[in-house]
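Preliminary data (for renewal application), cytidine-5'-monophosphate complex.
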Amino acid sequence: MSTSSTEAAPRKKRERPVIAIDGPAGAGKSTMAAHLARRFGFLNLETGAMYRALALKAIENDLGFEDEAALMDIASRTKIRLEPQLEGNRVLLDGMDVSRRVRDTDVTAAASQVSVHPRLRAWMVEQQRLLGDRGGVVMEGRDIGTVVFPDAEVKIFLDAAPEVRGNRRYRQTMPGEMVPAKVTESSIVQELKERDARDRNRVDSPLRPAEDAVVLDSTSMTLDEVLAAAEQVVRKHVEDGQLH
Ligand code: C5P
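Predicted structure:
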């Protein structure tokens, strides 16, 4: 099954919209998704958590991240569940809460590697469409506006310079958290750049803004400004009568 699609896909009549948020790692997509979900009463779904959960299962089963057939084999026996909460998603892997574990650096790196495989992406996309098809969701990831929901009512592509994303991430993770001494601001920037390169250069569903996405570059914006801008984009659709 191919996950590619046309961005000009005819719009389905949904009672409530799909808000697609895409962009590179560390741009603040989850914060934006959680904010918009609270503001407009939608569910927020972090699709990256699904890739992370499968990557965790690959680690636990000692699989090579390049072995698509083996990954598909475990995928067919895996249940991944996202439970939207106020600040993010609770992630259940075969019924086990792995919300914290999937954020560890080994899982982060593995998720970026397993997500290049087309058959695995098709499997994820199918589930993501089932989750969001009825609308009333803010779905964030890398390919939501281009592949998962090319007919999304609102599409935002959130970007920022890698150094700024790395700095924000560094400041977020430091207070009171046990972080290995080798994790520095520049190692975080380096890791983000590697993940970006993999996401942007993969053959299937590379990271890029959909043609009809509103691109927000938050490099020189405060968090409040970014959230206000995103709210404005959604509100415009309310005013255009496209949101119920
Ligand atoms: O968004 P997050 O950083 O949690 O995503 C983890 C990894 O999953 C990313 O580095 C990316 O490679 C992959 N991903 C993807 N498509 C999505 C969401 C995430 O390829 N829709």
